[in-house]
Amino acid sequence: MQDCALDKGLLDEIMDVARVMSADGKPADYIPELALTPPELFALSCAPAGGETVETGDTERFFTMQSISKTLALAFAVEHFGAANVFRHVGMEPSADSFNSLMRIEMTSSKPSNPFMNAGAIAACSLIHTAYRESSAERLFGFFTEITGRDDGFDEKVCASEKRSADRNRALAYFMKSVGLLHGDVESILDFYFKLCSIRCTSGGLAQLGAMFASGGVSPVSGRRLIKRETAHIVVGLMSTCGLYNGSGEFAVRVGLPGKSGVSGGILAVVPGRMGIGVFSPALDAKGNSLAGMKALELLSDRLNLRGF
Ligand code: DON
Asked: I need a surface site. Which of 83, 195, 256, 270 has the fewest CB within 10 A?
């Protein structure tokens, strides 16, 4: 197959086909503020190594990172505490359970399957929060700012909305504490986790985050190394097996790239050595992954011959 050129014309074509998929889903509503997002929004950005970002759609529109920020928490925790330490608290295996599942934790009372399940991300947050306390959120926001070169803050309304409706995460975290899988003050660990989930970004910011992982840890904006190559490998490896939860297998077949989704409708994808991709479309499938986002990545992967597997 002949590779196409990466240009705005190609992304426009992909957007036209992909955004139709939104009709089959709807924005997340278990965080009430997210349900207010207009479902027809769509943005797609590609940040190639050493090149200008190419993008289309609602690229100025801010959305919250939600679970995509779990890649930041994992990278930060591995950098600061070492992989051996982190993986004492959380596993590195995929799970067939939904992202907020309690079942396995309760059945086994053993560490969460991987750092992208809510339970695993809360465990990673507990490590970071125990070490850095009041400055933990600022440190993670600063890490994302170093990657994208801009500080767009976090969305206080979405954060407060999640905090008010977080019975499920609260149940998970308190259960983990009761069986010795989580240490420290549950409410302040969760406050830190909700702030991370509420980091504001654009599709372009996600593409730059992807470009940082694609390059093995170098900021696409400043050219500075931000994380070790080995840390980037860990995050990208887990994205390829666990990034879309119980939809990771389908994503590997259809898109063939490491990815990480969030319930706001964003998906981050990494083409190792080549580029980062960010896509945003709020209507989700039953597993909490963006329908049009997955379709756009599938088409992009086909047209640019990006498949890694
Ligand atoms: O903890 C939650 O439920 C949300 N803040 C994040 C979940 C999420 O994004 C799952 N991804 N598709």
From this structure: 83
pLDDT above 70 (res 1): no
Sheet with 275-280: list strands edge to edge: 54-57, 43-48, 275-280, 266-271, 259-261
Tell me how crowded residue 93 is: count the other CB atoms within 10 A of its CB: 10
Q: Would the CB of 263 count as within 6 Å of ligand 1? A: yes
Q: Residue 209 maps to which CATH number?
A: 3.40.710.10
Q: Does residue 17 sit in the same domain as residue 46?
A: yes
Number of domains, the chain: 2
Point out the ligand 1 atom lying closest to the alpha carbon of residue 197: 5
Q: What is the pTM of this model?
A: 0.97
Q: pLDDT tens digits, residue range 31-60?
A: 999 999 999 999 999 999 888 999 999 999
- Tell which of 197, 215, 237 closes a domain: 197
**Pairwise CA distance, residues 47 & 145, whole Å:** 16
| pLDDT above 70 coverage of the chain, percent | 99
| Residue 309 belongs to some domain of the structure | no
Per-residue model confidence (pLDDT) at position 109 = 86
Range of the domain at 160: 67-197
229 C-alpha to ligand 1 centroid (Å): 27
Best residue among 100, 163, 168, 190 to mutate for probing ligand 1, ranked by most atoms within 8 Å of CB: 100
Residue 25 has pLDDT above 90, yes or no: yes
Catalytic residue, candidates 235, 263, 270, 279: 263
Count of CB atoms situated within 10 Å of the CB of 2: 5
